[in-house]
Please model this.
Amino acid sequence: MARIDVVMPQMGESIAEGTLSRWLKKVGDSVKRDEPIFEISTDKVDAEIPAASNGVLIEILVKEGQTVAVQTVVARLETDAAAAAAIPATAAPAPAAAAAVNTVSSAPAAGNPPPAASSAQPAIRGPQSGGNGNSLEERLRTKSSPLVRRMAAEHNVDISGLQGSGIAGRVTKKDLAAYLESGGAKAVPRPSMHAPTGVESHGPMPEPWRGDSVEPMSKMRRLTSEHMIASRREHAHVTSFFEIDLTRVARIRHKMRGDFEKQTGQKLTYLPFILKVVVDALKAFPVLNSAIAGDNIIYRKRYNLGIAVALDWGLIVPVIKNAEDLSLSGLTKALNDLADRARNKKLKPEEVQEATFTITNPGVFGSLMGTPIIPMGTSAILGLGAIEKRPKVITGPDGEDTIAIRTCAYFSLSFDHRIVDGADADKFLGFIKKHLENYPEAGA
Model:
């Protein structure tokens, strides 16, 4: 018999665990090489994991909804069809595997020696000199399992101040339980329903009424909640609005659309035109392409554009890397490819990381304008309102005013007022307005 272990993959260097959200195959099913067999959720992306070989799924070791460390064996394949047929099917995880899942926060990656076990309560760490919380070790340590983070929130424990026994000092469930039992923190009454991790509860927790339905947040929704709250606390949000006339862009797009789509096979929207101008605006106003690191400002020299994509199960922001190197057709291909793979759960973790500036387009749903929240690690986000025809007063060459029908949209820019002044934000939007309203046909 040739059995193959199916493991939780390492989906990016900073990701130490994943949640097995759904099995796409059941015990006894035949699978082909590269055929998706289960879905996972991580801190960055939902993805389908393909089989490494042809075979039959003979054992499932991790249930849906469980979070395990990378390299944990989640299932087994049998490549010998005759041997697989002789194995009785069972969909339940083996007891040993289920027990292992409960302590996966301290499970080492395959090939690495296990960390020294400690029965003592985790020690409170003193201030770390020179640390900014962005090292791999610090990120791994604070990215404890969702269960540990919920426990910590319920008992008002800041796990960033604890040194655990898991990978890179990660705090495990056992560590936290030992810390609480030792009197390290005063337990508070457990609410009947959880608030998202990191969210302070003010007042009583809402209770369901008769006839209501209650559903747990998905991992993506929970992480979105955490990130949005963290961003609102971290950034000094201010939003400016400009109305931009896209009539010229609409005319150029209409003129080149047929040939463009025949040559590239890609649908041409307004967004690539906007992205090209945004990159030029970021070059002209580099503080909009920056990030705060303590008392320092990092001015990014790469222009990685995050594009928010609405999914049926949440929101994800794939990133067009080095957008300054792409032509209009290159931007169109990158946009369509990332959006399609986002909707089909085919994105890689690195494709949703390292955005230096983000664009969200709620206008596709009819929204006129909004005040989007700045993603962590950046200084601004651009919101695009609905593109529609409006009556506008136009001054002709002879100075006479006339009313004309123009294609317009409201653009909103939420920026971090700690480093971006209102004047620079408005100049940035003014740059975008000027260059879109005078978009060169030769540059299309």
About this structure: The CA atoms of residues 102 and 173 lie 8 Å apart. The longest strand covers residues 401-416. The mean pLDDT is 79.
